[in-house]
Structures are given as structure tokens and as C-alpha cells.
Amino acid sequence: DNFVVLKNVCKRFGDNTVIGDLDLEIKKGSLVTLLGPSGCGKTTVLRLVAGLEKPSSGQIFIDGEDVTNTSIQQRDICMVFQSYALFPHLSLHDNVGYGLKMLKLSAAEIKHRVDEALKLVDMEGMGDRFVDQISGGQQQRVALARALVLKPKVLLFDEPLSNLDANLRRSMRETIRELQQRFNITSLYVTHDQTEAFAVSDTVIVMNDGEIMQQGSPGDLYQSPASMFMANFMGDANIFSGSFDGEQLNINGYRIAADPEVIRGNPAGDYQIGVRPEAILLAHEGEPCQQCIVENVVYMGSMYEVAVMWHDQELLLQLNSSQFDAGLSDHAYLTINPTGLFLLPA
Ligand code: ADP
Ligand code: MG
């Protein structure tokens, strides 16, 4: 039941290959997020799905139909942008109803559907206002209503929340997720912001340089990154040269019970072992091989960021404010939570 399918899609601009052999599938009614650094080709993928660009090679299917060579008008797709792209000279009602008017619906039908859409985005009764009379957050809600009112087959979001401040972003994230789930609109959501990707979707596809690096649930991507790029892109990571003997992991002589979720079927051998900053704790006592030197402590509100030196390597730790023991002097002992690790090839 894949509703949107990209098969071996390449996109070149002149000599510049922006998308190289991309395969992507979105199940009917689900929302998939494309997450990646600026310039990696996210907007290009959206434009390819929308029909604003043609692939240099490969195929695009929507609802079982090969749309590779069809125009944007034939695809029944709506796009929500970072710049809300509203018409300043039209009322909110007319902005939202614009597409319906193009479809030549009756004025009464348009009003009914516009009112309904404005209500969905918490803008009920505000149809007579103009764009300059509402806030940026409200403008983004109107842009969302304008897309929803058309009940498109596919909804595309291009960094829709980038212009909003942190609190508004959070509430819009919730609104988008809730409406997408309520109406089961098949959606592709693009962002460079990891938090946003994790908040709006169950499936995240990470892209870099026009290629898919890894795809999975937020938990999978964070806990089991498949490459060094992923380990660093999905938050901070401390990386060690270590080994696995079939039962225990060994980092600098510190032996850690091997959790099956960490090992994931890997054979014994040498590995790069990643440890997330929150998986390391500090204590007053421990084995000699766990002894470290506290180098720097930064209070961050809900946590402390602590830098320690351990076997000539500087590590980053994030400790809950309640866990941090201000009595720790220069010398401390670290312990590593066995479930907070991941393995990468040596
Ligand atoms: P993102 O949305 O991830 O920031 P884009 O898809 O906008 O990335 O761009 C990816 C790359 O493709 C960039 O290097 C950009 O310069 C290039 N690019 C995008 N559109 C065009 C175009 N119309 N002509 C030439 N190069 C383009
Ligand atoms: Mg972009």
C-alpha cells in the first residue's frame, strides 16, 4: 500500500548531480519526514514529487499511477512553504478559498469548506481579516488551512516552521501531526531540524548529498545509527576504539555487559563504539580503568554538560541536574549505561 513511490530517481542540474539514485516510499495515509542538512536536496525531492521538476532518470508513482511525465496540475498535490505565500490583498477567507474558486465550486460550498478549514487550524471566525492583521504563526495556520481545504492526495511540507519562534513551532508541530493523522493525508515533510523531524513523524529518512543515509523510527536512528555521519548528525556522540568478545564490550579496559539491542547480531571483533552523552554517569568510586578527570562543567538548566578526560580522550556527558554531584572533584569514575551504546565498523 505504498502511495508515493520514487524509483531510482536522479536529478542533475547541468553537471551537478543533486539527487543520485533515490528510492523512497510513503505508505497511504502516513507522514514521512526527510531530514538533512541544508543543500542536501530536500526541496528538490519535494519539487520532483510535486511535478515542478522532472527527474533526469527514474520514475515517480502516485496512487499506483506513473506520474513521471505529468504536470503539477495533474497530480493533485499541495505544498506548504516556509514563506507562507499568502496573497496580501485577499482576506483570509479568499486566501483559503482560492484553490476552490479555481475549481469553480459555488460560493456557498466554498464558504462552508473554508469555514471548516479555518476551524481546524483554530482560526474560526477570522475569515474577514487580512494577512497583515494576523501574526506569523496564524499566517502559517492559514497556509495549512489553504492546503487542507483542497483535500489533496498528497501534502508536501517544505520547512514550514522555520520562520516561527520556538513556542509556536512546538504548537504548530502538534497541529500538523494531529490534522495529518485525523485526515490520513499522505504527506512528505522536509526539515533540517532533528527535533522537528522526531516530533512530527514516525518514520524519518535522513538524507545527505542527495542520498539516503538511513531510514527508521526516531528511536532507531538515535540509538542505532548506521554510520559515522548518522552518529554525529543525530545528536552528540562519544566514539571509542573498542572490541566485543562475544559477551562483553571492552573500552579502555572497562568491560561492559553486551546488550542484545546494542550488538544486533554483530560478531566478535574490533569496533568503533559510540556512547551518547546521557549514557555516561559519574561516581566517587569505581575501577581504576574508569577513572577520569573532570575538566569543565556547564550548567544548562535541566542538565549539566560536563567534559571529562578519560584515557587521553575528551568526552561529553549530559547529566540531569538531579544526578549531578557538585561534590565531585577533579577525579571521578565514570560508568556507562550498557543500553546507551552503538557499534560501528572499526
Ligand atoms: P535543500 O532543500 O536540502 O536545502 P535543495 O534541494 O534546495 O537543498 O538544493 C540541493 C542542491 O541543488 C543545491 O546545491 C542547489 O544549489 C542545487 N539546485 C537546486 N535547484 C537548482 C536549480 N534549479 N538549478 C541548479 N541547481 C539547483
Ligand atoms: Mg530546501
UniProtKB/TrEMBL annotation:
Pfam families listed in its UniProt record: ABC_tran, TOBE_2
Coiled coil segments of this chain: none
Domain of life: Bacteria
SUPFAM superfamilies linked to this entry: MOP-like, P-loop containing nucleoside triphosphate hydrolases
Transmembrane region(s): none
PROSITE patterns given in the database record: ABC_TRANSPORTER_1 (PS00211), ABC_TRANSPORTER_2 (PS50893)
Name used for this protein in its record: ABC transporter ATP-binding protein
Source organism of the structure: Photobacterium lipolyticum
Gene name as annotated: fbpC
